[in-house]
Amino acid sequence: MIVRSFPKLNTALASPLISPLVQTGIKTGIKSGINEAKFPTSSALLPEQDGQVDVPINDIEGAGLRDQLVDWGIGLQPKGTLGEGTGVNPFTNVKEEISNLDSEMLRLIDTKPSALKEAAGYFWGLRSGGKKIRPAVLFLISKSLPSTGATVLPTQRRLACITEMIHTASLFHDDVIDKGEIRRGNKTANEMFGNKMAILGGDFLLAKASVSLARLRNLEVTELMSGVIEHLVRGEVMQIKGGGGLDGYLGKNFFKTSSLIANSAMSTAILGDAPAEYVRESYLYGKYLGNAFQLVDDVLDFEGNVEVLGKERYGDLRSGLATGPALFAEETRPEMRELRLRKFRGGGDIQRALDIIYSTDAIERTKDLARVNAEMARDVVEGWGGERDALRELCRIVVDREK
Ligand code: FPP
Ligand code: MG
Q: Record's family (predicted)?
């Protein structure tokens, strides 16, 4: 019999098929009152019942939307604890790891024909290669786990690459769908190489990310990160279909934005053999930060500086999307509903929607919800050591950012 051996990133970390750590984590979670439905579990860990394996409960459908909304902070007022800034620069603390990321990813996608690598790696060759918030979160969490100390393990570095590759693939596809022309101040991949190469470049990134994920040899992490790809697609389709009001919007935000940050954060804690509470808190930190991030993005579409953002305002309304500001406005101005349902396509609809939004406190309410989520993320890591201050400062930066 031929036994194939695969290169291991870190032999010490080679995980058994079902990590006892995560089993304990889930048991501990349930015991300590974590709502099981809000915390992703791996189907591999669930008992077979009557010949059927339970499906993982890691999305809002199983959770009950109302519970999830409370969890998102609806109805809460921000405590105002994000403050003025602490002077800590979270990106400085992981500068080295981030500066190596692009070249590591380019190595992972080395292939022939070279046109494929050129398209897939296009963003990483550019000077403004993005904010790198996702890898920064992962590196900071990795450096804060009591089990590994101030280091980022090779498996955790690889996970950061995988996360950024999935994110980049989703942007390539999104820009084809949205007919986007400019991203991060540069031409989009579809503008640069055409739709076909942009889609194939995205597919290739996903394929390479999947191979790298499998090579981590960790079932829980594989399941969590594969689930994220499903979530991204579901979120994009929810956005295209619209509907569902504020509930649908927040659900879409989770799938499109928060799931990747939450599940990769949880995965880096699993790879770092972290105690169960750190695994759970990493997930929650990522989820709340992701929620805040998307809400701020949606506010910037109304209030952002055109020069700084490199795009015109009101792009969401123009493409038929009702985000936080329109949806909160609808709560007091029900006439917004009609505009929303026809995707702001009637003559004068956009101006009408803007008049309604600006005559209410809807933008402020969207900002408040972003602040509540950022504060929840900040509170989750309060008891941590390591890069705790940087993680907390990142919450403020996400809320105060201009782009
Ligand atoms: C940006 O949205 C897009 C996303 C966050 C995810 C898009 C997901 C897909 C296209 C599904 C396919 C997924 C994969 C993994 C291939 P936006 O248009 O709201 O923001 P923008 O202003 O940055 O374009
Ligand atoms: Mg887009």
A: Belongs to the FPP/GGPP synthase family.
> How many separate domains does the chain show?
1
Nearest to 269 by CA among 376, 377, 155, 379: 155
Question: Which domain covers residue 186, as residue numbers?
Answer: 7-284
Task: Tell me, yes or no, whether 124 lies in a domain.
Answer: yes
Among the bound ligands, name the one nearest to the CA of residue 228.
1
Cβ neighbourhood burial of 83 (10 Å; 0-12, 13-18, 19+): exposed
> pLDDT tens digits, the chain, 403 residues: what are they?
333 332 333 323 333 222 333 333 333 332 233 333 355 554 444 433 333 333 343 444 444 566 677 778 888 999 998 988 888 999 999 999 999 999 999 999 999 999 999 999 998 877 666 779 999 999 999 999 999 989 999 999 999 999 999 999 999 999 999 999 988 888 999 999 999 999 999 999 999 999 999 999 999 999 999 999 999 999 999 999 988 889 899 999 999 999 999 999 999 999 999 999 999 999 999 999 999 999 999 999 999 888 787 778 999 999 999 999 999 999 999 999 999 999 999 999 999 999 999 999 999 999 999 999 999 999 999 999 999 999 999 999 999 998 8
Q: How many CB atoms lie within 10 A of CB 311?
A: 16
180 CB within 6 A, ligand 1? yes
Identify the CATH number of the domain in which residue 267 sits.
1.10.600.10
- 369 assigned to some structural domain: no
Q: Is 170 in the pocket of ligand 1 (CB under 6 A)?
A: yes
Residue 49 three-state SS: strand
* pTM of the model as a whole: 0.86
Q: Could you tell me the distance, in angstroms and rounded to a whole number, from the CA of residue 385 to the centre of ligand 2?
A: 37
